[in-house]
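Sharing in case it's useful to others searching the archive later.

Someone asked me privately for the predicted structure of Beta-xylosidase, so I'm posting the question and my answer publicly. Question first, with the sequence:
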Amino acid sequence: MLFRKSRLAIIRAVCCTALFTPAFSQAPQQAVQIEVDLAKVKGPMQPIWAFFGYDEPNYTYMKDGKKLLTEISRLSKVPVYVRAHSLLVTGDGEAALKWGSTNAYTEDAQGKAVYDWTIVDKIFDTYLERGMKPIAQIGFMPQALSTKPEPYRHHWKPGDNYDDIYLGWAYPPKDYQKWGELVYQWVRHSVDKYGRKEVESWYWELWNEPNISYWKGTVDEYIKLYDYTADAVKRALPSARIGGPEVTGPAWDKSEAFMRKFLDHITTGKNYVTGKTGTPIDFITYHAKGAPKVVDGHVQMNMGTQLRDLDKGFEIVASYPALKKLPIIIGESDPEGCAACSEDVSPQNAYRNGTMYSSYTAASFARKYDLAAARGVNLLGAVSWSFEFEDQEWFRGFRDLATNGVDKPVLNVFRMFGMMEGNRVEVKQNLAYDFRRVRDESVRKEADINGIASKSAHAAAVMVWNYHDDNVPAPDAAVQVTVQGLPAQKVMLCHYRIDQENSNSYEVWKAMGSPKQPTETQIRQLEKAGQLALLTSPQWIEPKSGKATIAMQLPRQGVSLLHFKW
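And my answer, the predicted structure tokens:
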């Protein structure tokens, strides 16, 4: 039965809101053994997943944008950080694909600056009302400051030439001092409106992917822009946090050269504003993307490409002793590079609606912790560049977390991560893949069946996935998870699941006949199906000498979370 009534009303208070679905029967096969030792701490369970971003800032305060931001804020016990493009772009605030504007800066007939923070404030108010915080992206270039102001606005849609979007907003300023004053006024206004303590908790960062066409200037011109920006931010609020350079693909030769030239300047270069050596930087940012393609009629992901970008960036940062311990924010960290390139025109993106996106997310985020630890760097966060696209076709195949206000399976992985806190603990690495093999080979042979685990004072969690780069049918995997170090004689176990039958609004929508305009009743059913579901009823278990074993059948591209409370 597709739409099951909940039978867990009493236990929901203990185990979070969920739908009841029966457990799979076990097939006679050799089980994959996953061993967790809660006593062996690997490091803090830093909530690197609590970072999200998107191109279209004006979606923030629209109907489904506000609804999704509320959902995201509720899944996390810590403030979620949000990064959006185009916060200084000139325009009327109309929302469109790959476009946004705030009209924060214009000039009068005499060339005098006119500041209007109305739309910027509306965006940030929407975050702060939900306990979220901005990664305030300083960009792009207002039309009145651009060295090439015409043409300025694009009208891109999926299928159009992607290079057509890089118009006047992508150019350097005609006056760097005016640019610096704009940045100063924005930070000062933020302090006046929201208070010093609040703004001190934000991250300010310059531009987006200046090593490709988002920046129509040179590397040196970006560095100059950074110097003026950092100076303005620190003059307005000395304790504010400023970072960069937000390059993409540090494993590419040209990107590595850009990143190193920027970091060389930060540490030993002559500052364009002060004339002194060096420039302030409080955190380092760059992007890492995978590369899916269609092979023999199915989608084949390439997690290895994304992990190699991540690792190369870590290696670069680690090579600068003065910078190695700075926080790193992966400003965009995704399976590929174009959120607005829909499945109907980009068939390699057909992974986005179903469970392949959720299993990829679980497996890739777990490896980010390991990569950072191996390089000895300080990974603060990894921004999932996925939000929502207002008033689009249902399940069109954008890289988003929800469609028309209905949560997609991938959002439930983040709900799972939201229940993991305290410290990361040991999951034995005698399985088919460790982080090095996934980085070097991706997942092209046997499936990656593995896990990540955490422990806090009164809870523990084990996330387990069955991932493969090739999105083709495969038998369920028998998995046995053994957890040792449980400190109580009686423990409540809640088993959550994302697969074809659980936590999956997309499969429910397809079973409805893929309606282009679902009815109100269907929408309520889809909203319910989009929530994180329990696989079985919560149960009390009695560990023996602190050890418990949980057996399950885990479908290909499925993710389970075993959540223990005592």
